Amino acid sequence: MADEYVKRSYKRFEEEDDDDDYAGVPSNDGYYRNDSRANDDEGHSDSTEGHDEDDEIYEGEYQGIPRADSGKAGGVDGVTSAAQQFRDLSAYEGERRKDQEELAQQYEVILQECGHGKFQWTLYFVLGLALMADGVEIFVVGFVLPSAEKDMCLSEPNKGMLGLIVYLGMMVGAFVWGGLADRIGRRQTLLISLSINSVFAFFSSFVQGYSSFLLCRLLSGVGIGGSIPIVFSYYSEFLAQEKRGEHLSWLCMFWMIGGIYASAMAWAIIPHYGWSFQMGSAYQFHSWRVFVLVCAFPSVAAICAITTMPESPRFFLENGKHDEAWMILKQVHDTNMRAKGYPERVFSVSERLSKNEISPSGHMPLLFLFLFLFQVWSNFQTIFSPEYRRVTYMMMAVWFSMSFSYYGLTVWFPDMIKYLQKQEYASRTKVFFKEKVEHVTFNFTLENQVHRQGEYFNDKFMNLRMKSMVFEDSLFEECYFEDITSTNTFFKNCTFIATLFYNTDLFKYRLINSRLINSTFLHNKEGCLLSDISDDNNAYMVYFVSFLGTLAVLPGNIVSALLMDKIGRLRMLAGSSVISCISCFFLSFGNSESAMIALLCLFGGISIASWNALDVLTVELYPSDKRTTAFGFLNALCKLAAVLGISIFTSFVGITKAVPILFASAALAAGSFLALKLPETRGQVLQ
């Protein structure tokens, strides 16, 4: 703190008065302190004025607004006047940028004085809960689909829409909440978004119909969409330059923890179908609904924790609320100093920071909602202004390519594993030809069999389950079916003579091109009832694979956190993308279930470093009044790319591996190339 620049930066926060009524005296430690507080009516802002009459910058000029008389000074003729005005505007713009850079340096110096300690670590765990809720949201629908499809009688298109709806909701939420956070504050917006997520996640565990469940998951996704852009921006504004990259990378660990939490809860809850109750056939509450309810806990916990934390002081400074910002910075300083055993240390920045009544990102009066939305839209448009246009387009390309390949592959991997499981299951199918069975009672499970041209006379099928059973060109005469639960079971070109079906789910859509002669259906089972655990032999495997895939990112998280501030954001982003691109070519060797699981873990562990670097880079490339707006927009684009990637990659499951490998490799290669064209932000203060 001994160098002249630091002392000069600190003095910009001190009150100066022309009458010298509030003159400060230097302290022993080199900081400039005021001994008395200035009157609110007579205080002036050093952040927006110069130090002499000739060089004075009034508050409007700090915002890029020229003086009213700037166009009048100059020569007599209009050409000279216009030229002088142009020079004045250029000078004002240069002054404004210089002033902004100095203010950013001042804020950095204050954060260094506050130190990194208990306050930042408390905020780390609080915001980590919000990020954890985002990680949980990604996995919820995928884990409940196998059970929900039976509970709600979902068709394949309905299942596909339910799988994608969370990404569509998060896309809308990221854009909306990101824009609002730059206008009404990080903390307040995050509380609103998490509240919406919690409420509709809770409702989704109780609603019965497909449409209502779909709507609740959509709105739940809209709520959680604000988590990532706000959390990273919020936390970064409490971090000094030398700590920012490392600790933002450590924060990414909570997304991994969210995935592990969802996998563990699904593993522990969903297969226990006894954890359920129903009221007739109209209302059913099965174990998968308990899982949905449990997955709302991180979001609720985050809301409770965030209410104890203050707003970002950087946001207050950008909006002219300097006294509020000073109080928060003092709280940060005092909390850290007490925890380190130095409670006597005094926050040396004057209580009265420079005071602007109007600021570049100040609030417009909220008289009408459309005026407020217009503000948000105008702020969004500024990220495409000439100053940020190139960076924004480059970041859009990097975010899109990364998301397209990552989400496409991470969903393609489980689908490929399921496809390999089905192939292996089909290879064990038993086939029976022209069998004749008379006067036999079947009361055991029938599974994975094909019966062709069989004849069944006076046989009883009672209290049993049929799984993956196919009867073709068979005859059933005077047979009795009672209390049958079936999965993937069909009767094709069969004939039923004098046969009774009692309390079964063998609905007519399971009888394909079959004839019914003097046959009767009584008390058919209604709705889609959940089967026993053995219907989902691979349930534990699905959760275990997701658990392993999520846990595999731990080494990548640790490495990126330790190296982020050493090798830089661009090298981390480009290097991880290149290695991920190379790893894609190993997918052609994934011909078994174990090989695909290993490749899933490898790809996830490598690519996570790219995401961490991209998050840090996005935070540091945009100024405070545009940070969450830009981050939210890029995160929304990320979710759009995820929807496209998932739709394209999964369409090639069971057809070819070449196309997904080619698409993923090309996207990652393009992303790594474009990343090197971005400006490096390591060692720079937040704009």
Automatic annotation (TrEMBL):
Q: Which domain of life is it from?
A: Eukaryota
Its record classes its membrane topology as:
Multi-pass membrane protein
User: Where does it mainly reside?
Assistant: membrane
What processes in GO biological process is this protein linked to? Answer: chemical synaptic transmission; neurotransmitter transport
**Region labeled Disordered — which residues?**
1-76
**Compositional bias of kind Basic and acidic residues:** 1-14, 32-50
Q: Name one GO cellular component term.
A: synaptic vesicle membrane
Residue intervals passing through the bilayer: 121-148, 160-178, 190-207, 214-235, 247-270, 290-309, 362-380, 392-413, 540-563, 595-617, 629-652, 658-676
NCBIfam families attached to this UniProt entry: synapt_SV2
What family does the entry list?
Answer: Belongs to the major facilitator superfamily.
What's the protein called, per UniProt? Synaptic vesicle glycoprotein 2A
Encoding gene per record: sv2a
